[in-house]
Design goal:
The protein is 29% helix and 14% strand. The protein is an alpha+beta fold. It has one domain (22-97). Strands 1-2 form a two-stranded parallel ribbon. It is globular and about 45 Å long. The N and C termini lie far apart (51 Å). 22% of the residues are buried. Residues 1-88 form the Peptidase S33 tripeptidyl aminopeptidase-like C-terminal domain. InterPro entries: AB_hydrolase_fold (IPR029058), Pept_S33_TAP-like_C (IPR013595). This is Esterase/lipase.
């Protein structure tokens, strides 16, 4: 089914290449209990981007930046330096940094 005036055809997912290979590493973030975008979609996107790092914060809410301090810290660092977070980032179950006991950069 299509909306009036929109052409029928393959979905966006069907039109995208099966795998991307960007020049720089890509950070893909989500929350575990996002009511709008399932974290499984985030994992699928990460699997399609070579060299990507998927960070799924163990909190609820739409969007990791505003809902998980550990993800916000990882995003800030990634945007400032290009460094991807360690694998265990956000895995302590609280959404707070598992390796940064002082809290995230926004609280300092």
């Amino acid at each position: 089914m299509s909306c009036t005036g929109w052409p029928d055809g393959p979905s966006l997912a069907e039109r995208l290449p099966g795998r991307l290979a960007p020049a720089a590493p890509v950070l893909v973030t989500a929350t575990e209990d996002d009511p709008i975008t399932p974290s499984a979609w985030t994992a699928d996107l990460g699997a399609r981007i070579a060299g990507s790092h998927v960070l799924i914060a163990p909190v609820a809410g739409h969007g990791a930046l505003d809902n998980a301090p550990c993800a916000a810290d990882a995003i800030d660092t990634y945007l400032a330096t290009g460094a991807l977070p360690p694998e265990e980032k956000c895995r302590n179950g609280t959404g707070n940094p598992s390796r940064s006991p002082g809290g995230d950069a926004r609280s300092r």
